[in-house]
Design brief:
With about 300 residues, the chain is α+β, with helices and mostly antiparallel strands. Helices cover about 55% and strands about 15% of the residues. About 0% of the residues have low confidence.
Length: about 300
């Protein structure tokens, strides 16, 4: 039946139906657009600030806890009495420093005598501090007349610590408690924005550090993302690229361990890497820094 064979009533009915469908589609698209805007507005104005405040409070709580512990250590009367006595047996001090390391999961707990510049950590007496490039922080801090300081100290390329220091302004005790930056990164990895948003540290201008995440940073990020893969695919990537305790293996070695052909392992590897690459590339991170090919 052609449109010419339709009665006027049928033509009007058909035209009305077409108009109704077009209106319904238009309303649906408009509603979808409005819903997207509402969700985006709610995320930007409410949920995201709330999440960031939660993260800030959590990290601030960790730092405040260390500040309190450092203050107690610098003013510990038993340690101060021992230091005043001239007794060379530092067992009491070392016991307290090791207790703090264990209690707060620290990289380092230290105590210094401001009068003599003698410096200990949980392993024992280290040295008498000198006003040079390595120990200049001590003299700058004691002369600042500030009760506490928070600083980042890098001893080597892979050894970066955040120090929380406290000094007695009317005494001679000075304490420093340090967390590994790796531990701070793990703390940030506990937080996610929705399903795929990650939390990073930025400077006061909102920019990432000049040097993008190094291999260890990307490794930590990718490892957290491995949870999105199934058990088999996760094991294949871990075996191929030496993650989560595995030694890096060739395609054939992985095939032998998992019980699949070399070609099938290659296919699964390509598929899994695509899933990870999409998220990493959105943050301008190079997947090749972590997943370098092994034959």
């Amino acid at each position: 039946m052609t449109i010419q064979n339709l009665s006027i009533t049928q033509k009007i009915t058909a035209l009305g139906s077409i108009i109704a469908i077009c209106v319904a589609v238009l309303i649906g698209l408009t509603s979808l657009h409005n819903s997207k805007n509402i969700i985006e507005q709610r995320m930007i104005e409410s949920e995201l600030p709330s999440k960031l405040q939660t993260i800030s409070n959590h990290i601030g709580g960790e730092i405040n806890e260390l500040l309190g512990a450092a203050q107690q250590l610098s003013a510990n009367t038993f340690i101060l009495d021992w230091a005043n006595s001239g007794n060379t047996n530092d067992a009491l001090l070392l016991k307290e420093l090791n207790r703090l390391v264990e209690q707060y999961d620290l990289a380092t707990a230290s105590w210094a005598n401001k009068n003599t510049a003698q410096y200990w950590n949980q392993d024992g007496f280290l040295r008498v501090l000198k006003n040079d490039a390595a120990d200049g922080w001590f003299f700058a801090f004691t002369q600042s007349k500030q009760p506490y300081s928070i600083s980042i100290y890098q001893e080597s390329a892979n050894d970066v610590k955040m120090f929380v220091n406290h000094q007695q302004l009317n005494g001679f005790g000075l304490a420093g408690l340090a967390k590994s930056i790796t531990d701070m990164q793990k703390l940030l990895q506990q937080f996610k924005i929705e399903q795929s948003g990650f939390v990073f540290i930025a400077d006061n201008e909102g920019e990432k550090p000049e040097n993008e995440l190094d291999r260890q940073d990307i490794s930590n990020l990718a490892i957290s993302m491995l949870e999105s893969l199934n058990k088999r695919d996760r094991e294949i990537l871990c075996r191929r690229f030496g993650l989560l305790g595995y030694e890096a293996q060739t395609l054939q070695q992985v095939a032998d361990e998992v019980g699949l052909t070399r070609e099938r392992i290659r296919q699964l590897q390509v598929s899994s890497l695509k899933k990870l690459k999409n998220t990493l590339s959105r943050e301008n991170y190079d997947l090749e820094l972590l997943f370098a090919e092994t034959a």
